[in-house]
Amino acid sequence: MLHLRKSAETNSYRTLMVEPDEELLYVDLDSLQRLETGDVRFNRGFVDGSCNGLILLVLNPQSILLWNPSTRKQNPLPPACPEDTSRVVRYALGYDSKHRDYKVVMVDQTTPEWEVFESVTRVYSLTTNSWKLVGDFPYALPTNEPWGLYLNDSLHTVIRHCLILAFDLAREEFYELPKPDYHGFSHGLVLVEELGGCLAAVVVPEMSISEVWVMKEYGVKESWSRLIRFDMCQIGLSLHMIPLAYSKSGDEILFNNKGSRFVWYNLGSKTVRVADVEGLGDRSNRKRCGPLFDARVCVESLVSPYDSGLLWIWEMERQRKRKAKGSRR
Fold first, then answer.
1. 3-state secondary structure of 21
2. Which intervals of the chain form a coiled coil (predicted)?
3. Residue 49: what pLDDT?
């Protein structure tokens, strides 16, 4: 997967999947210009995960797709369970490098009442094209925050604003990660994202203050480092700023300002400028409860939505031919 490594090392070949009320937008992250997706058309709320260029689309519990917008290939997956609108269901997509397999994790819960609920976790394997039951998700599902962030062969989420929970895709079990040692509200942990290949956490330690912390060494509590501290009263933005990606030069970070607009934050000058996404427009003055759009960073790739092993086999064959060619010289 050389092209994926090159993308991570150079902050290139990245795209942004934006979900406003209308048609889904697929844009280049550097230019913020809209890209073509062929005949594929999806409405807001269908994107439930992204990994190595593959997008997980959940139209309903009976219609789940893996889609590569770069190659415009899509693969319908078998349904995981009967449709039941009375339950809370969340999906996430990730890659299990140990078994070279793309997996979808689905957590299905009854609506929690006084912290009492039933929970079922299922894992879909692209290699076997089937679902199986695994250990239960031990907490009530977060409903409004991002869920199932993929990083380091695991899926991550914040529970009760005080705990980082992860799901190991190889072992297929849950584990806890240490949170940053910030000072302030004990329940100030808002969400986690991936930033520059590291786990990043958004923290609200006190009123009007928002911070971004980065775990420089995965799983090591002492490696948490505060990257940014915002005073929202001074910059006029939302407390729940979601960091999405570094700029190609690395001196700015793109933020989703609570689903109203995108902004670039300059790490050197500590200033903010609006990022105009083609086809989106400024929605900061629109009246509505909740975010006006969602956004996910993706990477352009050749990964097949049909078979986890195809790209790996192609890469191994390419390396074999290169070695054979070198030995003949």
1. coil
2. none
3. 85
Query: Rounded to an integer, what distance in angstroms lies between the CA atom of residue 201 and that of residue 316?
Result: 36
Q: Give the pLDDT band (50/70/90) at residue 35.
A: confident
Check if the beta carbon of residue 16 is closer than 8 Å to that of residue 32: yes
Distance, CA of 151 to CA of 100 (rounded, Å): 15
HEC string of 249-314? CCCEEEEEECCCCEEEEECCCCCEEEECCCCCCCCCCCCCCCCCCEEEEEECCCCCCCCHHHHHHH
Amino acid at 261: R
Using the structure block, give the residue that is written with the tokens 């094209």.
Answer: 129
The reported pLDDT for the residue numbered 315 is 47
Give the H or E element holding residue 107. Answer: strand 101-110
What pLDDT does residue 119 have? 84
Summarised one tens digit per residue, pLDDT across range 137-186 is 888 887 666 789 999 999 999 998 889 999 999 999 999 999 999 988 87
The answer, yes or no, to whether residue 321 has pLDDT greater than 60, is: no
- Other C-beta atoms closer than 10 Å to the C-beta of 119 total 18
3-state secondary structure of 2: helix
Indicate the DSSP class of residue 41. -
Residue of 274, 182, 270 whose CA lies nearest to 230:
270
What angle is formed at CA 158 by the lines to CA 225 and CA 118, rounded to 5 degrees? 160
Strand partners, 174: 167
In this prediction, residue 267 carries a pLDDT of 94
C-beta separation of 74 from 40 below 8 A: yes
Contact predicate 173/165, CB 8 Å: no
Nearest-angstrom CA–CA distance, 161 and 203: 9
Give the integer Cα–Cα distance in Å for 101 and 87: 28
pLDDT at 74 over 70: yes
∠ at Cα 158 (155, 159), nearest 5°? Answer: 120
